[in-house]
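Sample entry (280 residues):
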Amino acid sequence: MNPPKDADARRAVPPVICYPTDTLPAADMALYQTARDRLTPLSRVTVAPRDAAVIKVPAGHFLRIHSVDGPQVGDLNLFNANDLSERFYSGKTRALHGTHVTTGDRLWSSFPTLRPMATVTHDTLDWYGMDAFGGSVHDVIGTRCDPYTGNLLSDAQYHHCCHSNLTRALAGHMGQGLDAAEPLVHDVLNVFMCTGFTRDTGQYFMKASPVRPGDYIELFAEIDLLAVLSACPGGDCSAEHSSDAAACYPLDMEVLRPQDGTLDGWVPPVVNGYDRSHGV
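Predicted structure, serialized as tokens:
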């Protein structure tokens, strides 16, 4: 089909940011920095390759996700530890902060609460930025590898993809069956994963993660959190996922407690103030 005569003019219309963040409540990064300078390890859990694990993070504590033995990406679900219906909202986080998150960005919860669940307080990979392919680290665009898409594309029955890993781990924590846990599993923060969109077709791509042992991303828990992390079967996601082909390594989740008095003045965020009348 021939383009219209004003095609170039239409393409040249400048974009408008959908959700300007000038009025978004800012994280008190100076306060968090003071607190993170004096931290005491509280608990630590290892996430086995091609599996998932759970850890609780009390409000006002820090969660670090560590690369330990080799380049490995992880898929993270976050829940309000006291109400699993409040969980991480990757789409709104993406709309507010962009396709990838790093230090100073916040992870927002689902409707109707829509409040910060966690704040990224340190990221050893923040040097990566955006590469020449449009790739960056810690994305909120990918959904998670899952057995349903695998079955759709290759007629496979693969059970150690991130969706299934998260489902098993959450079910074990809840003490309930898979049918109760699976509907709660949600789109993830792809920790350490390097991703973007191709310039020509707009397709979601992955490439080898720049993560190395010793790297970590650190989150401050704004509310009581339940963190569920899957060590993706794609390893560093340089070639494929949803199979046993890639070299995979464990990840560690560590909870750290700040020293008393270093967070004076901080209070957990209240739930969203919308009255929920929806015009009725």
